[in-house]
Each structure stands twice: as C-alpha cells, then as structure tokens.
Amino acid sequence: MNADLQSSFPESRKVGELLRDRNMTVAVAESCTGGLLAAVLSAPEGASAYLVGGVVAYTEEMKELLLGVPHDLIRRHGVVSDAVARSLACSVRKRCESNLGVGITGFAGPTGGTEAAPLGTIFVALASTDQDSDAHVVRLLGSGSREQNREMAVRTALAMIEEEVQDA
Description:
CATH superfamily: CinA-like
CATH class: Alpha Beta
Radius of gyration: 15 Å
Number of strands: 5
Strand content: 15-25%
Strand order of the largest sheet: 2-1-3-4-5
Helix content: 40-55%
Shape: globular
C-alpha cells in the first residue's frame, strides 16, 4: 500500500478485506474529492478483487454525460445536494455493475458554496440498489482546509462502506 495513503487512511485496508471476504464490489463517483476515494481504495495490493472502477465527474456536464445525472435534478436541487449524491451513487453502481456505489459531491473549499450548501458542505451517498430513494446519504459540514474536508469525506465514505458490508 502506498505509505502516505496507508498512514493517512489505515481503515482502507480493513474495508478492502471486508469487501474481499464477502465477495462484494464497489464503484465510486467523485466530484470534490477528485479521485481520492478511488486512490485510497485501490492502494492495497489485490484491490481489483473489490474495486470495480470509478469516475471523477467534477463539472455538472460530466455528471450528466458520464453518469446520467438528470439536468433537471441538478437545476432543482443544486449540484451539491442530497439528490445529486444519491444519483451519482446509484448510477455508478449500475454502470459498473458493482454491489455498492458511492457518490460524493460538495464544496471542499476554499471557494464555492451557496446559501443552501455553504462552503464545506459535502454529501456522501452509498447505494446498494438502483433506486435513488434507497441510497443512504450523509451531509457533512467541514470547517477545515480543502484537504481536511476532502479527507473527512473519504473517511465518511469508508465508514459507510464498512457498515454496509458488515450488515450484508
């Protein structure tokens, strides 16, 4: 495992082992984390047993084009919203044919934010079905630096995956 990622995210090894032991797979759709979750999940040797793939869809257009997030959904709820996180998670799960899908969208900082989703707002969604309404979403409000906010989102996603896999 990459030494920096291993020391920063030691829980990733446990999550990978749980996924592998239960013969489960995960796919990720990331925005504000820019692929950090995929990097953390893929760092341990043998990660191909559980990490199917991922998409970094930073812009609204890429969320629509690559992951099929409906334009109207983004317009109604905003790109940083519970609804978009759910759509990202369900879509990447379905498109990658994985057991689990993770969707992350947010304003990590130091710029961005709206009245409805202030700077530091990040939504992390976990899907185990194709139904947006079934996805579990956590809303985070980071107050740290950009990197601290991104790391908080990845740690949350890892904890959500771990909980889901343990309950499976």
